[in-house]
């Protein structure tokens, strides 16, 4: 060819040069278009993948955070945008409407993502004396409740003030922390506990190292001075979290945030930072993740209350937390500050008081309290040993228990909900309420089987005793946890066995089958969270760790207060306690709402007049439309160009076939001038694989049609002009391949059905895919439908994801190695030939069985397995 | 070229890309990026979005104005739909989010580079045929 060109050039020097340049320019044009097209396909695949990710996240209900929602929405927007941009380059000026639709959908999504509660009240500090429960958006629910109790119910609460959520936001803004935190979340693998651990530590450090804005600093110091003025001199504060959404019904956040006790005004800023940093403590992060809370929705309000010199303190439950039907009042109490009840670190006294008048103590368990927490003269508290005789004494008397019970009744009546109340008694005998929140009660595990069927063998019992912290039974291997490192090592589904019921173990509750502790009662934070997550928990089992071996399988019956050796199936039957905590959560709902603008597909039929940009309601519609049009653009550009080496060639396989091939880029081994292309000149990997399957097993011809099948064909031919010779639609007469070395798109009409196949097969495993669509047939709808399902079953057997709508089948497989993709293409090639006209026999079961067996055997031979 | 104010991230990524036979340099601000481009011919820029000084979007705008042929891939830790679309409208090749598998990033760079070379070739052909 070079010689010929040289020859021509000598005769027509000017023209020859120009046409050569033209040919080269066209070649570059083709290459450029093909590259655009390939980028479009990549963006299309990426979009489809993201949609699948979203659907999976919504279906499984496994924890995901806002960073997932945001990253997902951003990624799909970018990819859909790219598709539109690439299509505009392939068909300039023709698809302007798409950008408008894109912007419309985009705005809808954006609105859902940026919705945020605006804090209108700008006050940084509010004294407790002017707080009530309507102010929970500003001061957090804990402080709002305390304000209500102090000011409306007129029960004693220590003096204090709230550092508001507005203050928190000012603090975060001042140091530009929120976006930095979001950045760190985005790049973290949230399923990796170790990574979460580091993330938590880093973010907390970040906050603690930051400084509050000047006016906040000043406002806090002023509030301290005012309190000192009222109290007449130096005072110490308890600095506690009071976050948005904390302590509301159904969600406890129990014990995940920090409390700093006995803080002087010199240290208050540090304490404040510690408390707001604890929004990112490991238990808090995992809790939000598992419950689907949006990080940015949670502002950390902080409450500062004057410390009470507690003689005794504890927790009241206004009802039995583990039995809905029991309305007795449960009081846990210890010597000193109530903290040791809450953090589950020491044994505590229990008083059960009946609500029936006259109220009286109906049950009393006095434990040996080995330690008590007291205020130190400097900052902080310390836990001191109690002499044995003191430790054995009840920390409160029965009269005090009854007064506490009356307070609980008053508060429960006021709030009309069961309450969880923390209290302290000062040296003068005055009772103060320190915290109060709705109590989460649990259904008693119902035992529906007859008693003797459930009772396992006595010999399986390892240990009896303890108290039910959370109902239910569960089974798993024993895991002894001691230090923080065990949080990282803890295996999914194990039984967590610990010495003390400390709040730090809460981050393991989403992974633990059950919890067993030697110390701690049902009033601790860990118990609260266990109930919320429905994890069976048996607390306060003395010496249990000596009776269990690491790794051995046990069954914990928390309600029955027994631990058994091995798996006791009869106890596990009705443990359908597992809750899906993600569903209905704010993060889940955000994703769900956003997905309505992304996933539904409204544009189904490319031949319908409704298949146009103005009808694109979702990103899925846009991708569907753009993909369809891009294939058309590629096709008509190639066909429309009077450029012989890139015009379509007829496939010559033994004889000229009814298959035409359009080379998009590097689909041929060498450029071809004539009108035929031979198979050995085709370089397209996916096309060759498909063709191999297509010709591997000769077709026996149409199956013998039964009378009804034939009539049904005749009937449909009179309706559908595409089926009638002479009145053919665009593609009715030909099968077109568009190919490059790694790409192949096939539009074919074989017999009476229409199919498209598209594949990208290269060494970039992540970009590989095969898509297959199939529609139509000549028989009546019922038989066509049966054939569609017949093909669906076959394809699913070979790992395709298949979706069927009416008689329209869409199948896809992606992300596999080249060789694997080639096998799938062979299967499609084979099926394209051999399922034609199978609709005819779909009413006949034995024929269906025969063909199914034959097809499966053929495919096995084809793949050589 | 890599532009990222997280020095450690930029250095590590540059090292890994060099291992994959991509000639890579890294700078840590938008200002440095523009200065670098003025002295060194560059095919593809990987650009962080959130940086002190002139930010990624502004840097992108400058690059596209001064060197329209250079392809720019945005790579960011802050998923933000609005910024993403803004970047794409200015002419970024893609907007990717950390963490990103190195293979996928290299594919993106190859695709961007191919786009650039085709673009260059096309311009050359046009010039040649109009001059001939």
From TrEMBL, chain A:
Report the EC number(s), separated by commas if there are several.
2.7.9.2
Domain PEP-utilising enzyme mobile: start-end pairs: 490-558
GO MF, one term, reads:
ATP binding
> Which pathway does the database say it acts in?
Carbohydrate biosynthesis; gluconeogenesis
Enzyme class, spelled out: transferase
Catalyzed reactions per annotation:
pyruvate + ATP + H2O = phosphoenolpyruvate + AMP + phosphate + 2 H(+)
* Domain Pyruvate phosphate dikinase AMP/ATP-binding residue range list: 137-446
Q: Which residues form a coiled coil?
A: 95-122
Q: Which cofactor does it need?
A: Mg(2+)
Its job: Catalyzes the phosphorylation of pyruvate to phosphoenolpyruvate.
Q: What is this protein called?
A: Phosphoenolpyruvate synthase
Q: Which organism is it from?
A: Candidatus Desulfacyla euxinica
Q: What is the lineage of its organism?
A: Bacteria, Deltaproteobacteria, Candidatus Desulfacyla
